[in-house]
Amino acid sequence: xxPFIACLLLFLLGLYAIVLKRNIIKIIIGFSLMEYAxxxxxxxxxxKQGAIAPIITRLGMTQDFVDPLPQALVLTSIVIGLAxxxxxxxxxxxxxxxxxxxxxxxxxxxxx
Amino acid sequence: MLPLFIIVPLCGAFLIPxxxxxxxGLADVVGNLVxxxxxxxxxxxxxxxxxxxxxxxxxxGGWMPPVGIVxxxxxxxxxxxxxTNLVGFPALLFSTRYLDQYTGRWKYYSLFMLLLAGLxxxxxxxxxxxxxxxxxxxxxxxxALVAFGTRAEELESGFKYxxxxxxxxxxxxxxxxxxxxxxxxxxxxDMARVLQAGGLTPLSWFVLAxxxxxxxxxxxxxxxxxxxxxxxxxxxxxxxxxxxxxxxKVLGVYAMSRVVFNVFGLxxxxxxxxxxxxxxxxxxxxxxxxxxxxxxxxxxxxxxxxTVSQVGYIVLGLGIGNYWAIVGALFHVLSHAxxxxxxxxxxxxxxxxxxxxxxxxxxxxxxxxPVTSWSYVLGSLSMSGVPPFAGFFSKLFIxxxxxxxxxxxxxxxxxxxxxxxxxxxxxVINNVLFVNRDRNSSLVREAPAPILVALVMLTALALAFxxxxxxxxxxxxxxxxxxxxxxxxxxxxxxxx
Amino acid sequence: MIELYVLLVAMLAAAVVAIEIKxxxxxxxxxxxxxxxxxxxxxxxxxxxxxxxxxxxxxLAVVFFAAVILRTTHDDSTVQLRITSRMxxxxxxxxxxxxxxxxxxxxxxxELPVFGSPLMRVAGNYLxxxxxxxxxxxxxxxxxxxxxxxxxxxxxxxxxxxxxxVLTIVRQIGRKxxxxxxxx
Amino acid sequence: MSRGxxxxxxxxxxxxxxxxxLFGCYIVLHGHLTPGGGFAGGVLIAAAFILVSLAFGSVENxxxxxxxxxxxxxxxxxxxxxxxxxxxxxxxxxFLSNLWPKVGExxxxxxxGTIPLANIAIAMKVGAGLFAIxxxxxxxxxxxxx
Amino acid sequence: xxxxxxxxxLVPIVVGSxxxxxxxLPRAARNTIAVLASATTLVLVVMLWFRAGSGSHALWQMxxxxxxxxxxxxxxxxxxxxxxxxxxxxLLATLYSTSYLKDHEFQDDYFGFLLVMxxxxxxxxxxRNLLAMYLFWELAGIATWRLVAFYRSEKEIAAAQKxxxxxxxxxxLMLIGFAFVFVQHQTFSxxxxxxxxxxxxxxxxxxxxxxxxxxxxxxxxxxxDAQSAAPLSVGALLSGVVEKAxxxxxxxxxxxxxxxxxxxxxxxxxxxxxxxxxxxxxGALQARDYKRVxxxxxxxxxxxxFIGFAFVSSFGLxxxxxxxxxxxxxxxxxxxxxGVVERSTGQHRxxxxxxxxxxxxVTAAATAVLMxxxxxxxxxxxxxxxxxxxxxxxxxxxxxxIGALIAAVMTALxxxxxxxxxxxxxxxxxxxxxxxxxxxxxxxxxxxxxxxxVILPFLGRFLEATTGVAGV
Lengths: 112, 497, 184, 146, 472
What we know:
heteropentamer; D: 146 residues; mainly alpha; E: 472 residues; two-stranded antiparallel sheet
């Protein structure tokens, strides 16, 4: 229970950064934090008390493994997180070149 | 057959960067070829479905569900894949000449291929996490495409769109995690069995709420619509057409209705609160966005708000939730995809030829741009629901559904706001196309041939879907509506038994 | 499992620092701290594959952040202790959201399986037939590249999309008409 | 950034980058046996390249070459993965079927059918892709042309 | 049979669309095509008479447009009568336009939409499925929109937009009413209702739509603007034909169908008719240009027709149909006569015109005949029609009958006011001139009015017969 709550707290922290921070880099950091939170949640969901990592080292032995499926999912989702972070950073960099600021309140050339 | 919907555009996406090093024109060729092939596949798929040789469940890698990932091709998927590719191909055709003003041609085509692959992938996927992955592909491609011009405003709106879209994606991912923890499976059909056996618990409501928010952001429904007008203003025209016509429907409407109707198995009798919420949100979108649209001076922004309001119609139909209303909603998915694609392309054709987007600066274009103008007019008529165009039937079915459900006020709102739709579109038509002002409109030329072909193609589709609404209803929309109204069939079809 | 809780607390603390600190480079590094905590947590929950990937990705992410920050600015000029009027509405909305989230969560979390004992309905199949059917001893790899290889294609495509997207975004000249103006 | 860093950094980099590259290759190849795989290995390979270009700096010409090189490799990696998937399809199984999973002794390098090949393709793709992102974000000042 | 009907509807629509799309044709060729197409339609409709006879039903199903199996079209006496009169007037109007508009731009647009509208009207005359009615109804509305905006200056465009939006709103309400019918009876065909009742909501919504299209109070506000913006040839067709669309739907849905109307219904319709004809007659008395006089007059006359239809009996129906025919011929003729005036003098305002009878005596005489028909002077066609309506009203409700009489007197007053442009001394600088083709058409219409008035006893018997035949 407690690890799940910690993950959700991290999720909310990330959301806090996205909603309330005005600096673009901070917003991107918020996304990374949310991403970590969900990944960690997945990993926690698959954890089994007293089991070992799902890698077979010797044939013919029955061992108690943790759930490998969430790990596979997290692997994918980490990459997706990296990809979105990279794209956001590219946006941030280019926006800085155009506006010379990271403050989203000053980046308002568009109406609405 | 089924994986080809994804493999073909992916091959295109990977080949275009390689081939365009040899000769730049190859990007155009490969892109349009892929688009044409996909249209062929989609049409063949619909025909095969009607002929009974599908629905198909394709187990990736030969691993049967729930162990492996399956592709599911049922009638709903067929509809969505059809609109994706039917709008995608004219948009690609439009791009060939439209891209002349931009640099980075191969990047555009590569991203467009990825967008198509992502949209097809979302529609075909029968696995919750896999759907998320393909949502991300389509979404990331669209973020980059929106900012394709890399001017300051374009970057700004692209970033805004990306922030909102990614919040939506992460909410969807969070709810996938919750669902996995609860059901310990990712296959949607398997999940449906577990969830429907367990009844609606607080966890289901939590997941439904997060998913609703996530998908509402993707489909630009009213409280979360603010990215859409900016994004449409910045995006190149074919991308606007894809975004309004297809993207928000596949990632928002389709994915949401798949989850709500097939995975959770909700019907109005089970969860009236949820459906009333959808009706409320739909009405909010229809009313507020129409009122915003009518005040716009920029015809692209006007169309963007109009998209928000039309999405409201679809959500209203889904929320009313009886058979006719869902038929209407799905018909509207189809007709709005074609007509809004058409309107965006036509308005960009106007912008390309005249260089302005202000309604007040234009006039009398009909004389010199007849094809563009008339396709715009016919598209507008279709959108506001004038027979015999496609839009009429979606409006009719939604109204019939609303009356049948004894929701008279939503019916009247839906009807009267279609008049407002015609009103704001007439504002463009009259001022831009018809009013004779002594401006320089006589110097304007008609757009080049590939653009016109794309426009004519979409106009013909809007007319064909309307005149041939009976076959469209029988072969495409009706079976798709059955998938949604009889929730358990989906799980049965995928898992057998 | 005391180390788990300690790490969780450290992770949250680093996250708060990453959000609130004024220097952006320091914020990126703090974010890296969060990432490394996550990596170690992965090890604790028996996910070495994830730990490896998380570590390398984290390094890379921090490098990307640093690359951008070094090209732009270190300073987060928006960090201020003063509460301005335009912060109120988002803050209130966010507060309402958190309250609702927490209120729902207490009942939702009760429905999740207890930490440390997953259901493993489907996952049992992988453990039973994984090595036999796919030949890979690392069952995570077996899932990633065989049972759910389609996801991995998706993942690779997401990365490809992001790469093309980044290359698109960083083009200095987006329109041919802008060429003169940009060089000037 | 075009001048590169100090001599000390450069000579350490010479050592470390090679090791990183080799270690990445090892992780890729043993992905089906030990923790790690195409993705982790690919990132390590990218890191090796990134290290080199950070330490030794670059001139525009070289950047352009590296960029071309990485984007070509990336496409090839993607196509390779698709080809592996299609191989299963063409061999009469489903798309993405694992061919010859039973060939080879389990728990040795040559086992697990096409999984190691897919790992290699992914590593190529990921390594090249991330390096390209790095070039775009950080190192290069050259004007991105078509 | 069905091939003739399909051809009568599709030939003008297809030819018209092609004219709009391919605008490179030489003027003479285009005019010839337009006239030929509308002549073809007239011939086809007349051939339908002989094919169908007055007694037989012929149902035509257009597979594509079917929601549930139901006959989509019906060829019966009412449809044949109206369609042939309308197609006849249309042919004359098309011929008239070739001369009347020959100096203007965008004629391809004009003739194209004229033909599209003809197809829509013919279709509407024979449509028996609610969706088919709606389709033709909207098609006519769209064509109206383009035709009213023919001159394309801001004023005309605004009037056309107003007309389109108001009629569209009305028709959307009507569509909601149709949805009620469908939900209640699972059919869009009035002939196949599962019971004699439909919900009063549905009746009310459909009635609103009909009133909008047929320009009755309180939904008439678009008409005066649209009529004064449109070319007079379009005005002739609008008031002669298109504004009858609502009446056609009314006849099909409320009279020639098994629907049982509630007791208060005749009073409602009759009341609307009387109020509409009185108010509009007042408007016509105050209007300052002849376009508006005629527009208000149209609204007033349409109110009259509603009075005829209000009291549902075969007599009332016959009265209404006779009035439709009479008004169609006379009002179209009047508009076209004013077109002759407009073309030679360029003036619209009544105050600027007088003494035109000297310079254009033929037109003046024809106008007099047409006006007398509208006023209801025996022995012209209008007299019989008006007589029928008032007799039907007397049988129904005396108050309404008295209102109808008052409106008739007011009609006479504003028509005389309008005719003053032909009387008195000619103004300097304002010289009328006959123009051959146009005057000839006006004379032809006046002659038709006279002729039909003379043979009305036969026509009257026929009208009564058709209602019996067509009673579903």
